[in-house]
Amino acid sequence: MPPATVPQATTPPMPPSVPPAPPTQPAGGAPGGGGGGIPKWLLFGVPVLIVAIIGAVLATSGGDDEEKVSADGGGGTTSLADAKAATIQIIAEGGIVDPEIGLTEVGGSGSGFIISEDGLAVTNNHVVTGAASLEVIVPGQDDPVTARVLGASECDDLAVIDLEGGGYTATEWAKPQIDQGLEVFSLGYPLGDPELTQTSGIITKTKSSSANAFFATTNSIEHDARINPGNSGGPLVLEDGSVLAVNYAGSDETDQNFALGLPKAKEIVDQLAKGKDVNSLGINGQAVFDENAGISGIWVLSVKSGSVADKAGIEGGDIITRLENTTLAEDGTLNDYCKILRSHDADDTLTVEVLRYATEEVLKGQINGDELELSFSFAQQEAGEVATGESYSGFTQVEDDTGSISVEIPVEWSDFSGAPGELGPSITASTSIASFGVYDAPGVNLLLIQDVPNPEGGIDAGLDAGAVDFAAQCATSEGRSDYDDGLYVGKFDVYTGCGTSGSAFFVLAAFEPGSDFVIIVAVNAITTADLEALDTIKSTFLVL
Question: CA–CA separation, 202 vs 183, rounded Å?
């Protein structure tokens, strides 16, 4: 028998000092939220807020040996009563992974609707992806059935699951055009209630885009047929029971409710039903942004086993900070992440950088390429060479005056110049540029040398030219090492015991393969905070 109530999930712990940012307002109005904790209006699968985005292993049990029919399978609904009979409650079990404390066992529920007699059903990605097991309560059946995920779309928050058995009542997609004022009904199981709930309203806006910490859809509609936590993945239907859209979020404060509408939802579902993921790495992710801590990225709550993210070595609890050399979630949303996924095919090789928060490791690798490996960290390697210092309050991105180069620097390095140098575009930033010039203040100098006939051949010569002066000012040279960050390659020197402050001095000469420029990056580090800044500079400097 179905349970009398669905277990309520607690809000998952956030990474220390990494609170979720307020969601970006959809066009036409803000769906509420903001402040600390996860916004109430996000309709995760079970009551309280995060639900069913849980677990590190994709459910593989359940389902038949026979091949399922397509998303257009027969047996479509002919009435609102039939649509109710096809609206299901999905119960997920598993765990999310917090970057600091590890696996947290939770369970929860969401909604969905059957689209074929042999058991294909639609729901939200955040309800099912990464769950260890799925059970589905079908109206009129005494016992839950098991289900497995066929395909998912992270950015449009959709998934297709395959229910065990067959002979189900199925829905049909709506035929009419979506018009403002059209009467609609929301069906689902909000707040973990095992009894189906129906609300009614009208279409209030026919098209909008919505990006926040959990999704970045491009074809939403707004309506006032009230939905609540637990409605996630349930259908928005017409009076004849045909499905017009898939609900995913709502706001009590503004009485706005959001659903992914036709034809976009149908187009994506058709692909997911064939076992193909769409705009997905195989994670359940949440955008996090903390300007003070200098952390932004996609917190990976769970990973689908066998997905491209899993094969790359991404784990639950990781924070994906950069994808294709682009810093993620600086606006607190999945928008940049999803733009990158939508700009590439599923089998494209993408560079990726991950912060493994629990171990304070930075890893770099590729999606559909090289697995993640530990990235060199000056904060760890050179910590014994400088004094201990409190971390900087945050980082800010700066450009030179010509718009040719950019980098992220500590906000405390406010003595800044972007004026061109004798050899080309330049950035200098420090607590004191004058003292930085004699190794007595932390800071950075970037210099772009353009129109270089043979960048690779000039790397050693360029470093050798400055080595005499550096060696005279510093007690020790640690030698020259190769450099490769996935975008730029080159070599770097490290000197210690520099100037009266006894600082560590880093100088890099690098170029982008196939280019005709060399970029010089020089950093003076007096404390461990400056070494942390050096790691940030190393991963963010960019020729524009």
Answer: 4
